[in-house]
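STRUCTURE REQUEST FORM
Protein name: Putative thioesterase
Source organism: Pontibacter ramchanderi
Requested output: C-alpha cells
Priority: standard
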Amino acid sequence: MKHLFQVGDTKVYRKTVTAADFARFDDGLVHAVCSTFSLAQAAEWAGRLFVLEMKEEDEEGIGTFLTINHKSPAFEGEEMEINATLKEVNGNNVICTFEARVGDRVVADGETGQKILKKDKLARVLAPR
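Status: completed
Returned output:
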C-alpha cells in the first residue's frame, strides 16, 4: 500500500442523477429523487478514488462501513458533487468523510471506510464455503 496522501486531502466525484438512481423496491417506485442507496454508492466511489491510487497491483480495496445522513433531495438531471476528505489512514484502513452537494444545497454527508488487502487474501475471505 502506497502512502501518497495526507489527512485533509480531497477527491471529487461528480454524478448526474438519472432515473436509475430513484428509490425503488419490489413494490415499485418510492419517489423520483436520488435514493439513499444511490447516494451511498456514490459516496463509496468518492472514497475509493483514494484507494485506487494507494493500492498496489496485487491489492484491492473492500468497503468496511458507511454512515450516511440524507439531508435533501437530488432531482433527475441535477449534478451532484461528492467531496471525499481523507480523515485517517490506520494501517490498511482508509477512512473518509464525504459531503454530497447540488450547488449550494447539501444532499448528504457521512463517512466511509475501506480496507486495502492483498488480492489473494481477499479471494480467500470472499470464497464461498
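Reviewer notes: The chain has one domain: 10-126. The longest helix spans residues 36-54.
Form closed.
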